[in-house]
Design goal:
This protein has 374 residues and is α/β, with parallel strands linked by helices. The chain contains 18 helices and eleven strands. The protein folds into two domains: 134 residues, HypD, alpha/beta domain 1 (Rossmann fold, 3-Layer(aba) Sandwich), CATH 3.40.50.11750; 151 residues, HypD, alpha/beta domain 2 (Rossmann fold), CATH 3.40.50.
Length: 374
């Protein structure tokens, strides 16, 4: 079977594919939540090797991709200021704002630096007391503990020149927004294992019960993904809708309690706009009142920036699983990794980037009638 020799354990992969084919009697639609899972699926051709009865669609689990355009524009405005050292992970530098990106700010003379930890930004604030040091704090629950730790440390060290532009988003409200949509097609979820390693999966039980969908906590290796698919399909065929943990080597139901306690101290739940999707109530974190002095949006008075997405970019529909990346008319034409219209084409976890990188330019659904006619 094509691609199977690329799996770490081809025999185990073949057995899982065979079991999924055996149990999948009816058509089912599953969504993998995480962009890392999406890349694993596309890189290894998992979606192409599954039986036709099982369709995988890609969810909003790329933190770079869902960072709202207005937050990118706030970052650009802050980074362009002469006394600012703006720190970010490298995957944010090429994410397009309304007019340009952080690379353009850097080339124009802005002091934009790639760091590998938010604690690096704290060290820069210590070493440069005459400069304002801003860290771009984005991501799901996975990256939030390190960002919270940086803010706690800055307060402990008394660093008035450190601040954070926060754009954290939360997975469970996004799943609920997808399930409650009138256009929803998702019948089961592969939940992101690294998010659950921090937060646990106790929050998913009410969602599985209310919307009657299986949710399987899943890892990122190809065999992890296949096991998650097998469990989700088995539940659907049996009429069950529970939360299962297929990533027990890293995830417990309770999660990391000390990390959760620190997050509750540093952050407060807030409404959040998701790029391409729109506002989702109670779907993000902002700094709590106890740490509001480190809020870069307030410090630099950029809270009122408002923007509008490109009408050509359909990344919002990609992030909701309504279309595949190669069903967007701009894919590979007006929108490429060199000239991206949206973050899903430039992020290392973006679905559009995965389709472009691994040559998925042909939309199989659109080309099927022509193939059948031939």
């Amino acid at each position: 079977m094509k691609y199977l020799d690329e799996f770490r354990d081809p025999a185990a992969a073949q057995a899982l594919f065979a079991e999924i084919r055996r149990i999948a009697k009816r058509p089912w639609v599953l969504m993998e939540v995480c962009g890392g899972q999406t890349h694993s699926i596309i890189r290894n051709g998992i979606d192409q090797l599954l039986p036709e009865t099982v369709e995988l669609i890609h969810g909003p689990g790329c933190p770079v991709c869902v960072t709202p355009l207005e937050t990118i524009d706030k970052a650009l405005a802050i980074a362009a200021r002469p006394n600012v050292i703006f720190c970010s992970f490298g995957d944010m530098l090429r994410v397009p704002g309304s007019a340009h990106d952080l690379f353009r700010v850097k080339s124009a003379g802005g002091d934009v630096r790639v760091v590998y930890s938010p604690l690096d930004a704290v060290k820069l604030a210590q070493a440069n007391p005459e400069r304002e040091v801003v860290f771009f704090g984005i991501g799901f629950e996975t990256t939030a503990p390190a960002n919270a730790m940086a803010v706690v440390l800055a307060k402990r060290l008394g660093l008035p020149n450190f601040s954070m532009l926060v754009s954290h988003v939360l997975v469970p409200p996004a799943i609920e927004a997808i399930l409650s949509s009138a256009r929803n097609r998702v019948q089961g979820f592969l939940a992101a294992g690294h998010v659950c390693s921090v937060m646990g999966y106790w929050q998913y039980h009410p969602l599985a019960e209310q919307y009657r969908v299986p949710i399987v906590v899943t890892g990122f290796e190809p065999l992890d993904v296949l096991e998650g698919i097998r469990r989700a399909v088995a539940q659907l065929e049996e009429g069950r809708h529970t939360v299962e943990n297929a990533y027990a080597r890293a995830v417990t139901e309770a999660g990391n309690r000390p990390a959760q306690q620190m997050l509750a101290e540093v952050f407060t739940v807030t409404d959040r706009t998701w790029r391409g999707i729109g506002p989702i109530p109670a779907s993000g974190w902002r700094l709590s009142d106890a740490y509001a002095e480190f809020d870069a949006a307030r410090r630099f008075t950029v809270e009122d920036i408002r923007t509008q997405e490109s009408p050509l970019c359909r990344s919002g529909q990609v992030l909701q699983g309504l279309i595949k990346p190669n069903q967007c008319p701009a894919f590979g034409k007006e929108c490429t990794p060199q000239k991206p219209l949206g973050a899903t084409m430039v992020s290392g976890e973006g679905a559009c980037a995965a389709y472009f990188r691994y040559g998925r330019f042909v939309n199989a659904e659109a080309s099927a009638p022509a193939a059948q006619a031939a």
